[in-house]
Structure formats: structure tokens, C-alpha cells
Amino acid sequence: MTDHPNEKPEVKSSMDSKPLSDTNEQIQAINQRLTNTLVSGILKKHGVDRSKLKPLSEEKKQELRDLVNDLKSKLEALSSNTVKESAEEAAPTKKRRIKRKSLME
């Protein structure tokens, strides 16, 4: 407990105890399952069946690969930024300490 009523007690997140690589793998697994579920639902909604599909040209396949790789890199960047931001929020910086100290005086 803190001496100051306005200060929030530090709360450790469950991510603190796990290595970042495990957390990233879990996020990727969840994203993969979510994507599969959404795509399956959309295809089923519109009556798309594997037997009705026409084969894609190599050009379209490469275009889709590029799109997926681009989305993957953006997702990884977003994920790493989120992890960095949560780490920054967890540890008070010098500015925050100075600000808190000046507010108490």
C-alpha cells in the first residue's frame, strides 16, 4: 500500500513472468486462429466452396503472398510497439518521479 491516497499501487501483469518470445508466439497463434475463423465465416456466408473455386494464377498468388507478408510485418511492428508501451508504463520514468515529487510539495 502507498502512503499517498492518489497513487495507484503497482500491479504486475501476467506478461511480466513470461518471456517475450512466448508471449509473441501466443499472440501469433491467437491471430492465426482468429483469421482462420473470420475467413471461414465469410466464405461460408457467401456460399464459397472449395469445389467452386478456380485456380489462381501465379501472379495473383504472389500478390496475395506480398499482401500477407506486409500485414505480418505491420502486425509485428504494432505488437512490439504495444509491448514497449506497456513496459514504459510499468516503470515510472524520472520525469514522472519529479512530477509526482513536485506535486507532493
UniProtKB/TrEMBL annotation:
<feature type="compositionally biased region" description="Polar residues">
    <location>
        <begin position="16"/>
        <end position="25"/>
    </location>
</feature>
<feature type="region of interest" description="Disordered">
    <location>
        <begin position="79"/>
        <end position="105"/>
    </location>
</feature>
<feature type="compositionally biased region" description="Basic and acidic residues">
    <location>
        <begin position="1"/>
        <end position="15"/>
    </location>
</feature>
<feature type="region of interest" description="Disordered">
    <location>
        <begin position="1"/>
        <end position="25"/>
    </location>
</feature>
<protein>
    <submittedName>
        <fullName>Uncharacterized protein</fullName>
    </submittedName>
</protein>
<feature type="compositionally biased region" description="Basic residues">
    <location>
        <begin position="93"/>
        <end position="105"/>
    </location>
</feature>
